[in-house]
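Design review, sub-item: ligand-bound model
Attendees: FS, YL, KQ
YL presented the inputs for the flavin mononucleotide complex:
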Amino acid sequence: MNKKKEGVKKLTDDFSEEEKRGFYKAIYSRRDVRSHFTSKPIEDDVLSKILHAAHHAPSVGFSQPWNFILIKDSETKKKIKESFEEEKNHSSQLVEEPKRSKYLSFKLEGILESPVNLCVTYDPTKFGPFVIGRTSIPEAGLYSVCCAIQNLWLSARTEGVGLGWVSILSNKILKDVLSLPGHVVPVAYLCLGYVDDFAEKPDLETAGWLPRLELKDVVFFEKWDDKENETWNNIQELIKDNFDYA
Ligand SMILES: Cc1cc2nc3c(=O)[nH]c(=O)nc-3n(C[C@H](O)[C@H](O)[C@H](O)COP(=O)(O)O)c2cc1C
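KQ shared the predicted structure:
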């Protein structure tokens, strides 16, 4: 008999309304966090859940080309922070005043303050060289790693753990400091820790650096840049409004 036990939900069942709300809450309340880290350590079972979530991301040809390097050593963190300072100063030369000063005033990492740093890497040799779906678009391997990072980010948010992505870094230094083999690519350097607040909006939006674009301005119909099309009337109207997950 295949009768389901009363009240027991299978993982493959549809989402209840409450579960849907939880899912959208994670998406809409996720933030990139650079400040607000508290000193509370991340419990191992929580960290394990977050890593499991990342590992269940989709990947091209099921190649799972990621690795996760967990870091808490303060000497390692210091070396990475030095690279950040150097790269931040260097990149500030690429923008004119008054934007330069504004850029330099932003807090763009939480390397030392966060209890756990995590480097997510891409290994193109995993299950290779023939990977289903990667023959025409080799970047699909990197895209897969980004899917894992997004899973990780949403899972962290669900667990109340803040995450900040630091890309103002030298990949060469990252590879040296973390002893990565030559063919392995560092994709993301992440700072994780409990936070005392998740901001409502992106920090860069609050600081007036850039606004969030309207959805209706980024959706095209049938062809590039076609923003109006009769067969898509209804959705055109719906995407004008903000989505309310509650
Ligand atoms: C690939 C990538 C690299 C990023 N690098 C940095 C970074 O070096 N420093 C930083 O403060 N934020 C970084 N961010 C965070 C973005 O600034 C942030 O996602 C964006 O402003 C929107 O804010 P939100 O994530 O809170 O919604 C990065 C995000 C992504 C996806």
